[in-house]
Amino acid sequence: MKCMSEMKKQDCEPNMFTYNALIHGFFNNGDTKSTQKVFDEMTCKRDIITYNTMIHGFCKTSDFDSARQVLGRMRENKDCLPDMVTYTTLIDGYYKKGELEEAMKCMSETEKQGSEPNQISYSILIHCLCKKVDVKNAQKMFNEMICEPNVITYNTMIHGFFKMGDFDSARRVLVRMTESRDCLPDRITCTILIDGYCKKGKSEGAMKCMYEMEMHGCEPDVITYSTMIHGFCRKGNFDSAWRVLGQRRESKDCLPDSVTYTTLIDGYCKKGKLEKAMKCMSEMEKLGCEPNLFGYNALIHGLCLSGQIGEVKEMVTKMRLHCVKDDMVTHMTILKGLCIEGRPDTATKHLKDIVSLGMKPEVAYVVIINEYRKLRKPDGAISLLKEINMRGLELSVSCFNRLLRVLVENGEPERAIFPLKEMHQMGCSPNFFSYNTVICSLCDMRGRMGEVEELVRDMLGNGHELRTNLYGCIIKGYCEDGNVNMAVQTFCGTLDNNNIFSLERFSILIKELCAKGMVVESERIFDYMSKKCTVVDVDSYRRVVDEHLCLSGRRKEALDSEAN
Question: Most Cβ neighbours (<10 Å): which of 28, 101, 236, 411?
């Protein structure tokens, strides 16, 4: 801008090229305000490059309103009408923003203005439709193209059909492509075909594509080979993967690299073929191809799955000797391996080593706490939670919920009350499931409804609502304690809160009322529920009342009370 000011002082008027360079520069720096100022203050005639640069800049920042305003000013200037580059820029901008409808409108505008859409605009829209899994409309546009498709258009359509699993349509597009003199399949075409066949487990089709590719003088590259090997490994077809690797070894220009071997190692480990994975690692090292972090992690995962925890330590040492730094994935794999072996105490010790390395393994704590839950060892989980809190790490509600489940499943719900109440002080708010786990377990024990009432008050105070299932547990708890009046009161509260009561819970309450000789109350509760819950099957609930009245020998008494 200083140069511009000097030019004007020297009576040297900036020309169109000067302004265009400034507009382009300001957009590259993200300064749209200065760009607009330069555009508005231009003293010379604007050309198509000026307008297109402005539209492109606004599209890059997703400011489509400003881009549309520039397009409007462009139309007003009869000497400089929008061209195909203008519309393609807008179509591309809308596509990148994911606004397909607006991009399609631009295409319609193009045709109305008398401009013919080009290969780029078609390719963008077809790619956008395929991405939205609207292959039907993509095919329609492809067939109606007024210009010859280019290799990108063909590749997009083939990829779209493969994603849909429509191999026949993909092959037809390929045939049309090969019959076209101006557009032959390239490496990307073949890689798309190979990837599609491999994903569907069609190894013969993939190998045929590779052969045809070479016949047309198109040599496979690293991506093609890796795609094929990865596809075969994913389907467990390791014989085909090894054949492709053999072909790659024979190719002087495309030798196997660490990615290729790592793909095989990972595939073997996932299928439990650890010996083969180790063989791959040895061959890799013989060829002077250094294993990477992903490869080591895959082997460690394989060793853990096969229960060879002792060998894992050796692998980590080897990894460090080769200057490959272990990461959180490495240690999470080891922790899970120790947990699979049923060794949470060893996992906890390893966890402390991770912390000493400066890592923050919040997720790792959850894994070990869950393992303590499975083994029903609540004390280990409690000490681990205390350690998390002591280290100032963020405690997740899932950690606490796992501990509460350990205690409840271990038949110690009374011990779960303390950690539930302590959650707030440890920087974590209990959720509905925290309360539900403890309250429902206490309701199954006699004489604990006082503690239940206290927890319910705490729960409501923390903004949680009681749900039907929890109401059912509380009513059952009062019935078990013989406190029928509180059970009835809670039941009525449930209905007042528009909850639908299950037949099973209703049966428990009616049974207790009938046993206590509270026949009139049984009938009143049924009548109240019939009015409040119009969606329930009233006949089924009526049968429950009648059944319990009969079992308790009070059916006649009920009939007499109704008559009165």
Answer: 236
Cα dihedral 321→324→328→333 (10° resolution): -70
Q: Are the C-beta atoms of 163 and 133 separated by less than 8 Å?
A: yes
Give the Cα separation of 192 and 152 in Å (integer).
12
**Chain length of the chain:** 564
248 φ, ψ to 5°? Answer: -70, -35
Q: Are 146 and 115 in contact (CB under 8 A)?
A: no
CA 98 to chain centre: 19
Among 189, 188, 193, 214, which residue's Cα sits nearest to residue 205? Answer: 193
| Average model confidence (pLDDT) across the chain | 80
Are the C-beta atoms of 254 and 222 separated by less than 8 Å? yes
Cα–Cα dist 111/333, whole Å: 58
CA–CA dist 418, 407 (Å, integer): 11
pTM over 0.70: no
> How much of the chain, in percent, has pLDDT values that exceed 90?
3
- Give a yes or no: residue 74 inside a domain: no
SS3 content of the chain, % helix, strand, coil (to 5): 75, 0, 25
Q: Helices 432-443 and 468-480, interaxial angle, to 10°?
A: 20
End-to-end CA distance of the chain: 100
State both tokens at 63. 């400011």
CA distance 150 to 427: 60
Residue ranges making up the domain that contains 502: 494-564
* Rounded Cα–Cα distance for residues 37 and 468 (Å): 64
Is 558 a residue whose pLDDT tops 60? no
User: By three-state DSSP, how is residue 313 classified?
Assistant: helix
Query: Token pair of 264, please?
Result: 């095989």
HSE, side-chain direction, 13 A CA sphere, residue 265: 27
In a domain, 528, yes or no: yes
Give the ranges where 221-257 is alpha helix by DSSP (H): 222-234, 238-250
Euclidean distance between CA atoms 34 and 32, whole angstroms = 6
298 in Cβ contact with 269 (< 8 Å): yes
Q: Would 499 be classed as within a structural domain?
A: yes
Task: Give 79's pLDDT tier (boundaries 50, 70, 90).
Answer: low
Whether residue 309 lies inside any domain: the answer is no
Looking from the CA of 212 toward its CB, the CA atoms found within 13 Å total 18
Q: Which residue has the tokens 């037949």?
A: 503
d(CA 235, CA 267): 9
